[in-house]
Design brief:
It is built from 3 helices and 7 strands, in the order ααβββββαββ. By secondary structure, it is of the alpha+beta class. Strands 1, 2, 3, 4, 5, 6 and 7 form a 7-stranded antiparallel beta sheet that branches.
Length: 138
C-alpha cells in the first residue's frame, strides 16, 4: 500500500510540474507546423524531417521549396524570462528553392521576407511556454 501511495504521489508531482524538458521531436513538429501555418505557403507536405511546398521565390515570383531539418537541440533557457520560458529550442535547417540551396550571408537569411514572417529561417529558435506547454516562434 505504501508503494502504491508513493507511486501516486510521484505521478501527481510529475503532472503538476509539466512532465520535464520537452523533446527534440516535439520541437521539430512545432517547426513544421509553424511553416505549414504560414499564409504564403501552398501545397505543404511533410515526410519526417523534410517539408516541401510552393511559395514566394527568393528572386520574386513563385517557386518550389524543400526544407530539410538538419538538427534540433533543446536546452535550458538562461535568459531573464526563464521562469516563463524554461527551455530554448534551436532548429538548423537547409532551404532549397527550385533545387538550389539558399544560404545565409552573415546575419541575413536570404529567404523571402514572406517565408520568415512567422519566425522561421535556416537557424532559428523557439521558447517553450511553460503555461501553454508549447513552443513559441514569434
Amino acid at each position: 500500500m505504501r508503494a502504491l501511495l508513493c507511486g501516486v504521489a510521484i505521478t501527481i508531482v510529475t503532472a503538476a510540474c509539466g512532465g520535464g524538458q520537452p523533446g527534440e521531436d516535439g520541437l521539430k513538429d512545432s517547426f513544421a507546423a509553424q511553416l505549414a501555418a504560414n499564409k504564403f505557403v501552398q501545397g505543404y507536405e511533410r515526410s519526417a524531417d523534410e517539408m516541401t511546398f510552393t511559395g514566394p521565390g527568393a528572386e520574386g515570383g513563385t517557386t518550389k521549396w524543400r526544407v530539410q531539418i538538419d538538427s534540433a537541440v533543446v536546452e535550458p533557457n538562461t535568459g531573464k524570462d526563464a521562469d516563463v520560458h524554461p527551455f530554448k529550442g534551436t532548429i538548423k535547417s537547409s532551404w532549397f528553392s527550385d533545387g538550389q540551396q539558399v544560404k545565409p550571408a552573415g546575419s541575413r537569411s536570404n529567404l523571402p521576407i514572406e517565408l520568415m514572417s512567422n519566425g522561421l529561417s535556416q537557424e532559428c529558435w523557439g521558447l517553450w511556454d511553460k503555461a501553454a506547454s508549447k513552443w513559441g516562434w514569434e
